[in-house]
Each structure stands twice: as C-alpha cells, then as structure tokens.
Amino acid sequence: MLAVFGAVAAAQPLPLAPDKAFRFDARALNPQAIEARFSIVDGYYLYRDRMHFSVEPASVPATVATLPPGKTKEDPFFGRVETYRGQVIINIALKDTVPGQKVVIVAESQGCADVGICYPVQTQRVTVSLPAANVAPTRPDQPPRKLWFE
Amino acid sequence: MNRRQILTAGWVAALAALCVGIYMGTRRETPLDSAALFALSLPDAAGKEQSISQWRGKVLVVNFWATWCAPCREEMPEFIKTQARYGSQGLQFVGIAVDDADKVAVFTKELGLNYPALIGGYGAVELSKTLGNRFAALPFSIVIDRQGHIFLTQLGPLKPDQLQAIIPKLL
User: Fold this and answer.
1) Which residue from A60, A71, A132, B154 has the highest number of Cβ atoms inside 10 Å of its Cβ?
2) Residues B52-56: what's their mean pLDDT?
3) Residue B170 near chain A (CB below 8 Å)
C-alpha cells in the first residue's frame, strides 16, 4: 500500500520552494576573494543571463568574474539561451576590505523546473565574514535568506 | 486486532492520507474564493483597464503566464485553439502576464492570441499566491464555472486532454 502511494507521489512530485531548488551559498577564500555557489537540485535549472551578483555594502568595490558557460539551447522567443544545472561557482573579487569585515553577497536568479513551471526572479543573500589572509575559508554566517520582489 | 496492530494501521492510514494529500496538492490546489479575482481590474497591453468581472457568467480560464516562462508559452497555442473552438459557447480565456507590457504586446502579436492578455506585473504573482499558487510559480491557471465557483486551480501546464475533459462539461 505504501509502495503504491509512494509511486504515485513520485510520479507527480511537488515542486520545491525556489530557495530549496536553487540553494545559494558563499564563502570567503581570503579577504579579497569570495566564492559564491548555486547548488541546483536535479530536475531544475537556472538561466545564465538572469543571474546577477552584487556585494553590500556598496562601498566595497566588487568585480564579478565572467559567469561560466552554461548549456545552450534555442528559445523560440528569446533566441540562444544558456542554462545551468547541478552546481555553478562564481568568483567575486573584492577591494578595500579588512579582515573580519562582514559583507553580504546578493544573488539574483531566475529558474524553472522540468515539470513545466518557472519561478519569478528571486533574490538571495548570504553574509560572509572576511578572514585574515591565508586562513581557511569561512562558513557563511547564516543560511541563505529569500527575499521576494524587492 | 491488538493495540499494536491498531496503532500500526493508524500510522499507515495517516501516511497514506498524507501521500494522497501531497499528490492532490500538485494537481489541484485547495479552491479558494474567486471574489478577489472578480474584483481585479488590470490594464491590457494597450493600457486599457479591463475588469475580470466583465466575464462573469462565462466559463473562465484565467492563466497567469510570462514571456520568460517557456512552459507558459508552450501551452498557449492550445489555449488559442480551445478559445476558437468553444468561445461561441461561452468559454473565455484571460491571460494575466507577470511581465512587461511591451514584451507581452510583441509576443501575443507573434502568437496571434485570440483572448485578452492583461498586464499583471510582478504584483499579479502575489494575487495568484492568495489563490493557491504558494510558490508564485508559472504557469498557474484557474478554471471558474458559470456560477463563479473555482472549479480547478493548477500549477503547471494545462494539458490538451485536461481541457477537453473539463471545458465541454462546464459549458
């Protein structure tokens, strides 16, 4: 009986909340380098050209490296688009920071699920404490927080 | 049946009910009051305000969509066919685009849309959340009968066989 219900439930899985389908995380490699990461659940994907990053406070100059290439597909309306599945790592270089300073990495993204739904643009934030030079990367101070429609 | 068996049966029944609830939740969200929807007035792509209540009494299919949502675009040709087939019998599709008016105008012209496309903007997603679209995802459709009762709400594409099974029955 359970197996039957389990099979039915699996055949029509509930779509995940977007912050669960597209987990965002970031860590400091050193006081001037952030490694940001999207971990995308199987069956979901993000659009490359809808992914944007920024750093708060705005007084910290940040340079986001070119996003890695995604899988290309032809969209009848938008033309050539690139999508990400699995993991995406994005490097962000910071300037004028001091060890111990906290910065917030802000990620804007938009994605869909293979079951045939798309989520609106979402904004996620992770606070990172910058370490002294040459120490092990820090863990994020807090889990990603979803903020809709800012 | 001893106490342990009764407890086990109870847990199995509860789990089964949960599974059924999860399954139904993916296909049909809990119907809510349609009053908020009928009270809604939104601009069309030309900027003219359109009240949803003007279609009260028809079988109404309200479809939340966006040009940036590929699954939304893929289901719309079938909506056009269905509107053409049943429109004279009282069916009315209404699209609410969670999008910019200029993109909607270009896309609907390309597609040859034969039903109204209203511009909801991102605020329209919030309305759809009150109608059961808890993740604010698209496409999200609401089928309303002639009496104004919500017959079906669905996250994800409305399949052609679904439309064929539902629409003639409601007309």
Assistant:
1) B154
2) 96
3) no
